Amino acid sequence: MVVNQVLRILRQNQVFSVREVKYGILEANGQISILLQSKYQKPDMEDLSLLESPVYLPIRENP
Predict the structure, then answer these.
(1) Distance separating alpha carbons of residues 38 and 33, to the nearest angstrom
(2) I need a surface site. Which of 6, 13, 17, 24 has the fewest CB within 10 A?
């Protein structure tokens, strides 16, 4: 695999700098599994100590 191909695959996975990558694994199907360095990983609700709010979907009753 050529460096340009690896960079393209990273960009397709929203990774725009090789420096953000901690590990990359070339899978048998040609895709790359990426583990970002912790400072580049997106925080989740638990990381931010936020509680989940229930989401209510409106339902329409048939007349």
Answers:
(1) 16
(2) 17
Is the model's pTM score more than 0.70? no
Residue closest to 31 by CA, chosen among 54, 61, 1, 57? 1
Tell me how far CA of residue 14 lies from CA of 4, 50, 59, 60, in angstroms: 15, 25, 36, 38
What tokens were used for 39? Answer: 């400072």
Q: 45: Cβ–Cβ under 8 A, 6 or more apart, which residues?
A: 51, 52
Tens of pLDDT along 20-31? 999 888 889 888
